[in-house]
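Notes from hallway chat w/ T.B., transcribed later so I don't forget. T.B. wanted the structure written out for a chain they're using in a teaching module, and asked if we could keep both sequence and structure tokens in one place. Agreed to drop them here.
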Amino acid sequence: MIAPTEPGQPDRLSIAALGRLGGRVSVPAYDVLSASPTVVHIGPGVFHRAHQAAYSDTALSTGDRSGAICAVSLRSAELQHVLTNQDHLYTMVETDNAGERFRVVGAIRESLVARTEPERVLARLSDPAITVVTITVTENGYCSIGSTGALDVTREEIEHDIRAPAAPVSLPGFLVEALRRRRHDGVSPFTVVSCDNLQSNGPATRRVVTELAAHRGGDLAEWIAASVAFPSSMVDRMVPATTESIRTLVEKTTGCADGWPVVTEPFSQWVLEDHFPTGRPRWEAAGVELVGDVRPYEQAKLRILNGAHSAFAYFGLLAGHSEIADAVADPVLRSAVMDMLEYEVIPTLRAPAGTNLTEYAASVIHRFGNRTLGYTTAKVAGDGSQKIPVRILATARDQLAAGRPVQRLAAVVAAYAACVFGPRAIELNVA
């Protein structure tokens, strides 16, 4: 339990405080203290806490006994400090132009920091109770070479893990050593689920893990390739960074201080390849879509949602809009992006079962109009050299191969170039 708050200060969020929260706040419908981790999540930033942890919280509320989470940060101890002082509870605020909804999430039951307590992390990963490891560490955390997906053996942390595999520091290193220990102890392997925006994120994760395992010699890499499941997933939810104004809003509404609440949109989607040989939480009870092939969903999100987001960012910057929502409200820009999606993006896609891509595109643009999230055109426009090839150019290549027009897609590339190299490049400051 947490330490008492200082006199004169608001109560901290805690298990003891749940019964005193305001009526606008929903709380976990299960005994939080009795929930023991069956999932390890690596990279518990704001996205994870507004997405996978929220799904697990809902699943636990249905009576499922699995799904509680041990959250592992690879480096920073800041989140661990905050969560420990709050009984590992935090507030999730769903917000749109109609108002806010407040919910306390209790699915995270433990937090560890790999940099300072690697043996505790490895012990938890080796625990037979852990059946699934989920990941959100951004593309950089996989230590791969972007153009090929191969393990980057020149990375400092990978060089370390090759020299000292029993004392890992990288994401692949921790997975390999934990799997080795489980095999040695006769414990079934956990399933590894990447929830990052990598194309074919399951195979991509398998590749870096097995390639690092191969450096240990023996047949560990072959055993991992044959015995460990790496299902692909597609995740979708807009989750901006937490600000002081959100902390103030949460404290005012709930009556409790929360050091790290998360703010997000009402929409959430998790599409997951249903391949879990050693079991998993009943995430489908929380709305997770379990499918045989994630790729159509992944492509639709990448080309429609991510492509439109970039288009609004560059068009919006050139039109003088600082917020994405303002760019969406501009009838000229909105029409341009909708035409791009209808005539040059959707024709390149295979619709997932039961999905109308035109309706999906319309819903995406509606979500971008949620000005309460505060996405700026400059923020979305950042890292364009990494985003444009996969969000726009790949679509254009497919259009050209089919003999179809690409002038609307080309306009996005031209807008990006104008932002980076044009006369206003310094003013716009888009790298």
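Follow-up for T.B.: The chain has a mean pLDDT of 95. Might be a good example for the class.
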